[in-house]
Amino acid sequence: MPRFDRTHTDDLAAYIKASPTPYHACAEAGRLLEAAGFTRLAESDPWPDAVGGYYVVRDGSIIAWRVNTLDYDAFRIFGAHTDTPTFKVKPNPDTGGGGWKQVAVEVYGGVPHQTWLDRDLSVAGRLVMRDGSEVLVHVDRPLLRIPRLAIHLDRGANEGQKFNAQSQLTPIWGLGEPRQGEFLEFVAAEAGVDPEDVFGHDLFAAALDEPAYLGKDDELFAAWRLDNLTSTHAGVAALIAAEDTGTRVPMLAAFNYEEIGSMTYSAAQSPFLESVLRRLMGDDYEGYAQAIARSGMMSSDTGNALHPNYPEKHEPGHRPLPGGGPMIKVSANQRYASGAEEQALFRRSADAAGIPWQTYVNRNDIPGGTTIGPISGTQLGILTVDVGLPILSMHSARELCGAEDPGRLADLALGLFTH
């Protein structure tokens, strides 16, 4: 029997299932927020100056906040991202030959190719219509497959193989000769729209495996998109619960495109977050500058747990494990935005939440990735700390974390918001 309350992790599993793409993740987050009384705003409309919960969506990114008092003078921002490494469907996707129909795709982000082979995949994303409206679509059944070459035809398969992303990672989706326009006609029909009215699309391969608990005592949790829907979902849950924050405005900022560098009009390097903050402060630049000086941000993204088969890949003095709680991520070269002030912000939040926590540092000879933390901290000039859950198989089509840790991450976010 599980030794913890599974409510939060069960909710995370449902959120992951409903969110195969960033666009679905924003829509599902919006649904959860609206059920809690939040109101969606349009960037092109005037915004109310009133107590309440609000959110805006831009191109797969979502920013949500609640105003508990009109006398606010600071922000507490929980940052995350909504995208995941996968394969994106090309504009003209119909390809193939030799009696096979295939779908042309492009690698999106840092995909470990092996984990996507011989796996049943669906297709999900958005269609942008002639009139500019957006239609979400998810063909929620096995549709695509990237077939592995049989070991009889590749005797060196277990000795390591490098795949050509152009010619060897193209999924199949049927038999026969490819016909231009067929795949998009099929997707449009699944979405219930006229293909002639589809003027643009962002479609992705999506893993179909159900989220699941595993281990002797269900102490582990496996799913696709733990990186980084664990953080987006934790931020939503904490924001809904943050009813008493004094003069601080609690905020979730979950950005699209983190996995490919954050350089779009809606990503962490864009003015999206700054625009929201400035609109909330009005024309008072002095008040805005003072509020930023009083504010703090927590950039939440997954990090690498100690791998039992490759312990030599980890920094010897910092070996976080699933089940040990969220990590503070530290880098002397500011790959993570965590110095002494930031560490203190993290510890105050963790103490307020009453949760265990760990520290993550990369080996000196194995540089790690980075997050939205250094980007947003630099863009805004705001105190920012990098945190996240320790997971195994990062960027795989099936990742693994401690089953209790997602709830602790939400508690950490609430600790940030309320203290």
UniProtKB/TrEMBL annotation:
SUPFAM superfamilies: Aminopeptidase/glucanase lid domain, Zn-dependent exopeptidases. Gene3D superfamilies: Aminopeptidase i, Domain 2, Zn peptidases. Transmembrane segments: none annotated. It is an enzyme of class 3 (hydrolase). GO terms for biological process: proteolysis. CDD domains: M18_DAP. Its cofactor is Zn(2+). The keyword Zinc applies. GO terms for molecular function: aminopeptidase activity; metallopeptidase activity; zinc ion binding. The keyword Protease applies. InterPro entries: Peptidase_M18 (IPR001948), Peptidase_M18_dom2 (IPR023358). This is M18 family aminopeptidase. It comes from Glycomyces paridis.
